[in-house]
Specification:
By secondary structure, the chain is an alpha/beta fold. It is built from nine helices and nine strands. It is globular.
Length: 262
């Protein structure tokens, strides 16, 4: 679904990886209604395309995303906030539950709703100069795209409150120390590093990886027995698929040992 630069969201397929880019650099990639719709369309296509294993969410022009486009409110292009969780989130994708992983490639600002987009992703790759923050605090704009839910689960309640209550910016190095960022890379290398990471993830047996990913999400809200039961159910699905037997054959042949290759 490659598109020209006039689109607020562009997509590019690189092997088994889809790069989805927010393309409003003059607005620091702030999300208005049409951009939210474009993100939904891109990730719906990613979910349906069986040839794609991993997606990357990126912001063109030096910033990941500055959140909702407040200037679009009242112009007919504003974001919609609906209580029905079966409907898209204000930023489009934040209520989507995908079966495949997404990596956020973060440079510049990932603030307000941009922070919420980043933490919707499974992993975050960022540079030292990147900034994460609840900057919407200063304008009375609430977190309604999962910020108060996902942030405490990722970095703990105390650190999440430090961001939610103060609205301060957290740089890349501090975010990496907190576990908010998974990979800290050289300046201007977030997309390149994300592509390398996505390619490695794409090499693994996919059903096993996806089921283990799903189990890690399903355990939230379950007691230990329920969580273990879900893990075993998904694990048996993987084993019965034949992936595990194929993997054991590769092990016997010496492939994938010592953390090398698959």
């Amino acid at each position: 679904m490659d598109q020209d630069s006039s689109y607020p969201v562009t997509s590019e397929i690189k092997g088994e990886v889809l790069v989805v880019s927010i393309n409003r650099p003059n607005q620091r990639n702030a999300i208005d209604g049409p951009t939210a719709d474009g993100l939904m369309e891109a990730f719906e296509e990613f979910e349906k395309n069986t040839a794609l294993n991993v997606a990357i969410l990126y912001g063109q022009g030096g910033n990941f995303c500055a959140g909702a486009d407040l200037k679009a409110i009242g112009s007919g292009r504003g974001n919609k906030v609906e209580e029905d969780l079966s409907r898209p989130g204000p930023l489009g994708i934040t209520r989507m539950k995908l079966s495949k992983p997404v990596i956020a490639a973060v440079e510049g600002y990932a603030v307000a709703g941009g922070l919420e987009l980043a933490i919707w992703c499974d992993l975050r790759v960022a540079t030292p100069s990147s900034t994460f923050g609840v900057f919407c605090r200063r304008w009375g704009v609430p977190l309604v795209d999962g910020g108060t839910v996902r942030l405490p689960r990722l970095i703990g309640h105390s650190r999440a409150l430090d961001m939610i209550l103060t609205g301060r910016g957290v740089g890349g190095a501090e975010a990496f120390e907190w576990g908010l960022v998974n990979r800290l890379v050289d300046e201007s290398c977030a997309l390149e590093a994300s592509l390398e990471l996505a390619a490695k993830i794409s090499l693994f047996p996919q059903l096993c990886m996806r089921n283990d990913r799903l189990s890690s999400y399903l355990q939230w809200g379950s007691d230990i027995d329920e969580a273990m039961a879900k893990e075993v159910h998904l694990g048996l699905e993987t084993i019965r698929s034949g992936e595990t037997i194929e993997g054991s054959k590769r092990f016997q042949e010496g492939r994938g040992r010592h953390g090398q290759g698959v």
